[in-house]
Amino acid sequence: MKLFWKLFCSMVLITALACSAGGYALIDAQFRNGLEREVSALYEENDLLRYALAQELTFNPLYSREELARAAGGISINTGRGPVSFRLSDGSGRALGGSGVIPVASGFLTSSLSEGQRGWVMEPLGDGRIYLHAASPLRLEDGVLYLENCREVSSLFSDRSAQYQSFFALMLVLTAAVGVLSLSASAMLLRPLSRLSDATRRMAAGELDQRVTVDRDDELGRLSVDFNVMSNRIRRQVLELQEAARRQEDFIGSFAHEIKTPLTSIIGYADLLRSRPMTESQVRENAGYIFSEGRRLEALSRKLMDLIVLDRHDFPLREVPLDVFLQRVDGAFRPALEREGIRLTVRAKPVKALLEPDLMETVCLNLLDNARKAMENGGSVLLEGLPEEGGCKITVRDTGKGIPEQELGRVTEAFYMVDKSRARAQGGAGLGLALCARIVDLHGGRLEIESREGQGTQVTVHLKGEGL
Questions:
Q1: pLDDT computed for residue 99 by the predictor
Q2: The most confident of 291-295, 322-326, 425-429, by mean pLDDT
Q3: Alpha-carbon span 378 to 372, nearest angstrom
Q4: How far, in Å, CA of 436 to CA of 178, rounded?
Q5: Parallel, antiparallel, or unpaired: how do β-strands 379-388 and 391-398 relate?
Q6: Residues 16, 171: contact at Cβ < 8 Å?
Q7: Which of 355, 431, 428 has its CA nearest to residue 394?
Q8: Which positions ≥6 away from 422 have C-beta within 8 Å?
Q9: What mean pLDDT is predicted for residues 262-277?
Q10: Are 404 and 453 in contact (CB under 8 A)?
């Protein structure tokens, strides 16, 4: 059974039981009070009769029981109901005299009374009438007489029965009214639960931005507040998981992208060693490039993990001679350019630059690789390092096909590619410049891109310099 119907039935049942118990208790109490009044009136009538008989005995103290019974026929006592009927009988219940007619027998009551005790019983008759029957003893010289009188209380019982019937009809009307009110109250009380249930189902379906209105300050209102807190926390945690997954995807893409450059250098120098006769010094030089690129590949993988997956921002920067740094970049990438007939020129001043060498080398190699991809039939690339006010700058300028002006603002977006078909054919993923921009920002620098379609592109990295 639904909670709505449980609440509805409970409210109706509790109200009906409470009202029924209260109503029946009230009617019963009223009946008992009426019965007690009738008994009191019965005893009062009996006392009046005893007083009248006592007066008769005062004038004739030697009356026998039979004489008193005959004399009692002349005694008359009137109340609001009219003359009071009474009877004088002996202990066996035999009537000796009296006034009026008493419709109930006396044997049971008089035989059950102790000496000197009075009492009463309720006597229903076969015709539906009900009487209260009282008796009290009178002691004479020759024995004991019992003075009996009665009162009809049939109306008391018929009134109670009528009250029960009226109360039953009233209970039907009251239960129907309570049922209507309970429907409205149950719907109003359970409306927040319905909203919570709907919001929970939508959250289970993937709509994590669900919130419920808090319009009450009770347990259901606090439950709504707790639901909103839970919803916010779940949404935040899901977003964090999604962000972690995105960073991992970025790392995989960036690592796959960045691993190509050192591998290209390693493969190029290894091919030179394998395919050409060289002097001992040339062998050592080429082997040195292979070794240094291998070590850089090892360090780069760790730093990319820290930068992208762990979202680290506190890489230590150190002062590095800019000319020495760019010569290292030249040695790592020159073989790849020469294989495609591209001339690389390096010019650098011996100025100190504040940078993280492995990450900044990644920036330079990415920029050189983009320059290589922009030239189909050879060309020239300039790699330049110069001082400037407040620091230094690294410039990569090519004679390639350039970037359309409307695309310049988006080239540093992750996975964005100006020429998608050509970039995919060359193994690009659209992560190079996005990663460069992030690394430059990590250095506190600035990436500036200038390009004219059909004439070439110039990318400048502005860095902090010595003593800054």
A1: 86
A2: 322-326
A3: 8
A4: 74
A5: antiparallel
A6: yes
A7: 355
A8: 373
A9: 76
A10: yes
CB atoms within 10 A of CB 345: 11
Question: Do residues 433 and 366 make contact, with C-beta atoms less than 8 angstroms apart?
Answer: yes
Q: Which amino acid appears at position 4 of this protein?
A: F
Give the dihedral of Cα atoms 371, 375, 378, 380; nearest 10 deg.
-40
